[in-house]
């Protein structure tokens, strides 16, 4: 991880007193973090050499973070007098900056452990402290052992420790320390000959062709085959989408893609020429993050499928509203979720999470041929809606890492941005159908459900998938997606249940108790997901010069984001603010009738039928699918 010019020598210009710290050495260390899951395809090859030097980053605990949910509810709940009164970036930074007490205690610990004041640096906003040290010094400081891991297929290496400890009276002042336990469970793009997509879960699957249904009912010609082939017209009919003509010039909608995943211009035009002719020749507004490129060298479904899908349907639904493509990561190192967050919030680069070598691309890229420019910090204002069709298993993220990133989504909500993530394509299982063992670790023979992150973060809107049931029409109720993929859903093993969701989840567990025990899912009262759904089966896309069908919550997220963008346009044209964090609204009684309740299907996985879609919210399809014609006037009725 590198923070170019972001750290200054302690005491020079950060407003921190250079008086001797009051901290006294205590010998009692406690484990602060341990690796969330041991990697399945990596082996320990050797101890990391003790003389190697590492930039140790210490993320300080943030003030007021325990109030983040209440603060977000104040600007997001439909009954709040503060609804829609979103914050400024300056308010966010000032509110959550670490305390002087935390700074004093952590610096005192480092000095009393043998580090000189001249070697202790701090980020300008005081969120991070850095010391450059040898591996041997860090191992002594953190009571840890660093090992080198080698990927069995590619030979790529990375390093880390399984656990690390800090003094018990220092722990409350620290969120996380890196590089330590965080581990990238997939090799980087530079070493993978058949790269399958950054992130994994959210990307669509392909099908050999449309499925035949002999029982199709007579419907208007454009909608005759929506149970076999979903198009823009099918979605407009399914979700009562009114004719859309943008009225605001200030609306924004961003879609995140990770290099080397990239769209092909010819694919967009192939799709648009058939389904939205006025868009032929149109392209998204491209923001290149951390040396990103929209590459065309590698062309196949695995390289073009996700981006083609997201843009063809996102652009097609909100036309002529512009789409912003947040293309993230260079061709050598790639990127993770933190990288695009850096680009929309400069404080995140050095404040609450930064970039973790095991999870994210590190810029300037130290690898040969990598991007040598500075990391992209705050290069674009957060779009009002951001859709990301990628995710990772929650079990591969440490609780500290997951919470720190989740808090950033909450802060973007305070700023007025709606964040959508796909809920996953393997039902109650994780990426590739992997489940957990009794200790909560990924295991090919595991039976415990494996939820998806960031979908489990309570400050994002998680999108599940539905389908037009075979033989049915767009005028009949949908079911949970059970073709090729199963809508990801379940309960978090990290995040507690948020206030806005308590009534819905309690009702589900009481009135429709699942036939599972705590040996299979977290029954202690945790965040349930998804929040809402949209169709995720049989999407027709232009891909590599031809039409194919794709499936997945990858389809659901950009479609739901398009509908929220339409709602924002109506509010902005009416002189109001965008909707921002929508979860408190969509769970409210006022909006219940604006969603189509899904009561058929399930999300099997881990050798079980999974959960079942039923009346009200459920951990398969959330509150249901949107009725846009009902949602627009309801959102317009809010301040």
Automatic annotation (TrEMBL):
Top-level lineage group: Eukaryota
| E.C. designation(s) | 3.4.14.10
Coiled coil spans: none
Which Pfam family is an annotated match for this chain, by its short name? Pro-kuma_activ
Please give the chief subcellular localization of this protein.
secreted
Q: Which reaction(s) does the protein catalyse, per the Swiss-Prot or TrEMBL entry?
A: Release of an N-terminal tripeptide from a polypeptide
Biological role: Secreted tripeptidyl-peptidase which degrades proteins at acidic pHs and is involved in virulence.
Protein name in the entry: tripeptidyl-peptidase II
């Amino acid at each position: 991880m590198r923070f170019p010019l972001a750290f200054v020598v302690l005491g020079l210009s950060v407003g921190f007193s250079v008086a001797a710290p009051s901290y006294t050495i205590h010998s009692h260390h406690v484990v602060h973090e341990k690796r969330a899951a041991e990697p399945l395809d990596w082996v320990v090859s050797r101890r990391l050499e003790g003389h190697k030097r590492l930039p140790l980053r210490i993320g300080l605990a943030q003030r007021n973070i325990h109030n983040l949910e209440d603060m977000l509810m104040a600007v997001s709940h439909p009954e709040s007098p503060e609804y829609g009164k979103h914050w400024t970036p300056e308010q966010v930074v000032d509110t959550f900056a670490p305390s002087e007490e935390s700074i004093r205690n952590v610096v005192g610990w480092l000095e009393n452990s043998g580090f000189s004041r001249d070697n202790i640096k701090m980020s300008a906003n005081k969120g991070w402290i850095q010391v450059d040290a040898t591996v041997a010094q860090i191992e002594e400081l953190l009571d840890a052992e660093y090992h080198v891991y080698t990927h069995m297929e590619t030979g790529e290496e990375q390093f880390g420790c399984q656990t690390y400890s800090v003094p018990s009276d220092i722990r409350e002042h620290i969120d996380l320390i890196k590089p330590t336990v965080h581990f990238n469970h997939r090799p980087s793009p530079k070493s993978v000959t058949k790269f399958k997509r950054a992130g994994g879960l959210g990307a669509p699957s392909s099908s050999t062709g449309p499925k035949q249904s002999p029982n199709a009912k007579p419907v208007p010609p454009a909608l005759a085959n929506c149970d076999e082939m979903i198009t823009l017209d099918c979605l407009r009919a399914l979700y009562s989408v009114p004719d859309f003509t943008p009225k605001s010039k200030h609306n924004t909608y961003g879609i995140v893609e990770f290099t080397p995943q990239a769209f092909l211009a010819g694919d967009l035009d192939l799709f648009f020429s058939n389904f939205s002719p006025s868009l032929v020749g149109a392209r998204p507004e491209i923001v290149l993050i951390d040396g990103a490129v929209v590459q065309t060298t590698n062309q196949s479904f695995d390289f073009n499928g996700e981006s083609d899908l997201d843009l063809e349907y996102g652009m097609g639904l909100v036309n002529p509203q512009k789409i912003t493509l947040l293309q993230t990561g260079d061709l050598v190192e790639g990127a993770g979720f933190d990288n695009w967050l850096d680009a929309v919030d400069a404080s995140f680069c050095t404040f609450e999470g930064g970039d973790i070598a095991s999870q994210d691309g590190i810029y300037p890229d130290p690898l040969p041929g990598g991007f040598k420019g500075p990391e992209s910090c705050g290069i674009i204002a957060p779009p009002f809606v951001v859709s990301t069709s990628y995710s990772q298993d929650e079990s591969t993220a440490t609780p500290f890492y997951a919470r720190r990133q989740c808090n950033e989504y909450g802060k973007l909500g305070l700023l007025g941005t709606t964040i959508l993530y796909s809920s996953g394509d393997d039902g109650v299982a994780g990426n590739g159908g992997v489940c957990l063992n009794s200790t909560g670790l990924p295991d090919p023979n595991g039976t415990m459900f494996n939820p998806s992150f960031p979908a489990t973060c309570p400050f994002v809107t998680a999108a599940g998938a539905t389908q037009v049931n075979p033989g049915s029409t767009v005028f009949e109720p949908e079911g949970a997606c059970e073709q090729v993929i199963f809508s990801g859903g379940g309960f978090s093993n990290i995040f507690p249940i948020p206030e806005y969701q308590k009534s819905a989840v309690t009702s589900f567990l009481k009135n429709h108790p699942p036939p599972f025990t705590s040996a299979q899912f977290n029954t202690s009262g945790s965040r349930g997901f998804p929040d809402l759904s949209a169709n995720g089966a049989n999407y027709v896309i232009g891909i590599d010069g031809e039409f194919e069908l794709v499936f997945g919550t990858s389809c659901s997220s950009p479609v739901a984001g398009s509908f929220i963008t339409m709602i924002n346009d109506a509010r902005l044209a009416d002189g109001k603010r965008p909707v921002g964090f929508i979860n408190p609204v969509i769970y409210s009684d006022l909006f219940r009738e604006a969603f189509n309740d899904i009561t058929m299907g399930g999300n099997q996985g881990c050798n079980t039928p999974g959960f079942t879609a039923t009346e009200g919210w459920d951990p398969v399809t959330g509150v249901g699918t949107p009725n846009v014609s009902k949602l627009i006037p309801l959102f317009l009725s809010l301040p």
